[in-house]
Amino acid sequence: MTHLIAPVFILLSILITSNGISQNSINTIQKPENLIAVLDTIWQTEQTPLRKRDSLMNIYGAESKEYKKYQEVYEKNHIINEKKVTNILNKYGWPTKEIAGEQGNWTICNVIQHADNEIRIKLLPIMKQAVIDKKLAPRFLVRAEDRIATERGDLQLYGGQMKYYPETKSFNLWPVYDPVNIDKRRSEIGLDPIAKFLKQRFDFDWNLEEQIKRTLQFELEKEQKSE
Description:
By secondary structure, the protein is mainly alpha-helical. The chain contains eleven helices and two strands. Strands 1-2 form a two-stranded antiparallel sheet.
């Protein structure tokens, strides 16, 4: 037994750094499979409460206690996930598919989409560079740009953002800039027509005449507020 003490002690000294973290753990975090695992955990903790929340909303409504319960779970998880994603981007830049996995881009963009606008605006240049470097599809970038616009109270360009309106207790599309030409803008970056997207994503029917009226009303109200 006495002969084993020294080797064990040396081994522990090698593995444990001064702050108590395994040096081996620090080294392996950079392996692709570990980053994929981190992103998979982020995806699950971000999306699972959202799916449960939305399914309960369909049953009980967006103002129900059932809905609010999972909204709170999601919000707590998102704070953690936002920090993780920010750290990943600060450390690696925008990761390649080989490092982040097939789902990686979608996971990172999802967290950015759910972040505060200040965070989203700060990370937008990294997203733009990722598109230039062919690491990120343009559809992810414009989704973030639409979210930034709506958070600022501006018209969105591509129609990716819905909003819940308490006065009607229903969801509707956030008003769009130049609704007549929205499909032209969307096709230029490889997006499906707005009617197809809204039906598949939100089971929402696109009505051009209605959206033109909503955009005009939006612009009128914004102009009145600025006077």
